[in-house]
Design goal:
Blueprint lengths: L4 H13 L2 E10 L5 E11 L2 H9 L23 H20 L8 H12 L4 H22 L20 E4 L4 E4 L7 E3 L8 E3 H20 L1
Parallel strand pairs: 5-6
Antiparallel strand pairs: 1-2, 3-4, 4-5
């Protein structure tokens, strides 16, 4: 069964731009001192892009409207990582609009949705390239907002480019090179069409590199 690129693009785009509901279980204790579920606290959060924007330009709203807000000119952005994330994604979205010769919309969220509609008419390679970028935006937003922990860095050079820019996800059993000129990726299941190598090969490479390093230090 072939990989459905457009379905993956839609899912990633929705995570970046659409609001979603979070359910937090509230527990208590019964008469026998057993932990029991009392209720669920439901919270609706905006899309990841908007959440990052709220960190960059903190404001309070009472109407629950998650649409893009104006940037207060009197406030200096106070979170460097969130600011860099927001600006980098804005630049990347602009670059994609220029590449596909479409006009930017007024906010990042609408522009990303427009990219999704436009890329459906493009070839598979272009769709895969956009998917890779969008997944990168999503992962970075998730780190900035605290939705996921930052992937730890491996103290070993990349198998492809040789730079020490490897990151590993222990939960997903994947690894990637964050060097912008490389962007190599590895997973349990190799997928050459998507440029994903076998993580076992990367593990073997790291093991050999460490052994050679230890031998050189002992010499």
């Amino acid at each position: 069964m072939s990989f459905d690129v457009m379905a993956a693009l839609t899912e990633t785009s929705d995570a970046l731009t659409d609001s979603y509901q979070v359910r937090e279980p509230i527990y208590g204790w019964d008469a026998n001192r057993h932990r029991v579920l009392i209720r669920e606290h439901k919270t609706r959060l905006p899309g990841l892009i908007t959440q990052v924007g709220q960190i960059v330009w903190p404001t309070t709203t009472n109407d629950g409207d998650f649409k893009p807000r104006s940037i207060p000119t009197s406030r200096t952005p106070g979170d460097g990582e969130a600011t860099a994330c927001y600006l980098d994604i804005s630049i990347a979205v602009t670059r994609w609009h220029m590449m596909l010769t479409i006009v930017l919309r007024d906010d990042i969220e609408s522009s990303i949705r427009q990219l999704l509609g436009r890329v459906a008419a493009e070839d598979r390679d272009t769709q895969l390239a956009l998917l890779e970028d969008m997944r990168g935006w999503r992962h970075r937003c998730e780190i900035v907002t605290g939705a996921v922990a930052s992937d730890p860095q491996l103290q070993a050079p990349c198998l492809v480019c040789g730079h020490r820019t490897l990151r590993v996800s222990r939960t997903k059993l994947t690894a990637r090179c964050v060097n912008r000129e490389c962007k190599a990726r590895w997973a349990e299941t190799e997928d050459p069409e998507r440029g994903i190598g076998n993580i076992g090969q990367l593990a073997d490479w790291i093991r050999r590199w460490r052994e050679e390093r230890e031998q050189a230090s002992a010499a």
